[in-house]
Structure formats: structure tokens, C-alpha cells
Amino acid sequence: RPAFCNIAVERARDLLLMSHIQDSIHQADIATQILYNRAMVQIGICAFRDGLIKESHAALVEIQGSGRVKELLAQGVQTQRHGGPNPELDAIERQRQLPFHMHINLELLECIFLTSSMLLEIPAQAQTGPNNKKFISRPFRRFLDYNERQAFIGPPENTRDHIMSAAKALASGEWEKAR
Predict the structure, then answer these.
(1) What's the CA gap between 127 and 123, in Å, rounded?
(2) Over its length of 179 residues, how does the chain's per-residue pLDDT go in tens digits?
(3) Which of 9, 44, 129, 144 is the most buried (most CB within 10 A)?
(4) Contacts for 119 with CB less than 8 Å, ≥ 6 apart
């Protein structure tokens, strides 16, 4: 991988941080928030591709931890609402959605987030002990705890299951199995 890729990712991150847009993005209009979220996701994907695991995790944690990834990236709507169906809001949401050819692969995004979380969380857990209350990635730890509470664990069926089994193998020191 050329060295200029790392430089480009770092420069993009630095420009975004120097703009201080993250301080005021919650007061911006929804279209700007969507563009910001999509830019952060692309920075996270590029950072992961270049081996910048901490940077990738930092860029993706807020969006992946929200539980509303589709909505934040304008790739779908949240199906459950507290106030019931509202046709006007539904129409506005549908107009805001991006066409399919502009969608970001959400399974790839989850895979990158969970893998970077695993590569940060498991060594930290090994260093401080399994009962440490400080999390690097709360969503990852929640998935890992849920996976460990299962009475029967079959072979991995999806991306999340594969990463959880790799995390268990990594935690027990079997890095070849984790790979």
C-alpha cells in the first residue's frame, strides 16, 4: 500500500477536525448531518483499509453505536416510532433517502467496526482483566457478552458470529484460529 494513502486519510481527518464541524453538527440541518455521517463512515473505512485501527474505530463508533445506522446514512427509515405512523414525516423521510447505487455496504461497515473493536478491546481486556468496567467499545462488549451467555454456540453463520468467534479465539491466545 502506498504511503500517500495513510497521508490522505490523516489529512482528511485533520481537515475535518480543524473545521470543528463536530461541535455544531447536531444543530445543522438534516441534509448536512447526513453528509457529515457519510463522510465520517468513509474516513473510517479508509482508515481501516490503511491499517489505522484506532482511527477507524474512532470514526465509526458514534454511528455504529447509535443503532440507527440506516437512518443516519439516509439508507432506510426506522420502522418503530413512539408516536405511531405519521404520513407527512414518512413522506419527508422517503424523499431524504439516497438512491441504492449511492448506499454504503452496511454489512461491510459493521464488519470493519467490529473487527477494529475486537483488535482494540481484546488486548485491553487481556491487560486489565475481564472484569474491567472500562470499555473501549460498548457495542462490541455487549455483543461479546451476549455471545458468551448463549447455551449452545454452533458454527458461525454471519459476519458478526465470525468476528465473535475470532474474538474468543484471540482472547484465549489462539491468534492463528482467530485469523
Answers:
(1) 6
(2) 555 566 777 787 788 778 877 788 888 888 888 989 998 999 899 889 988 899 999 999 989 988 888 888 888 876 655 556 677 777 777 777 777 888 899 999 999 999 999 999 888 877 777 666 777 888 888 888 888 888 787 888 889 889 988 998 888 888 888 88
(3) 44
(4) 53
At residue 178's C-alpha, the angle toward residues 172 and 179, to 5°, is: 150
Place of cell 438534516: 30
Q: Which three three-digit cell numbers place residue 7?
A: 497521508
**Polymer length of the chain:** 179
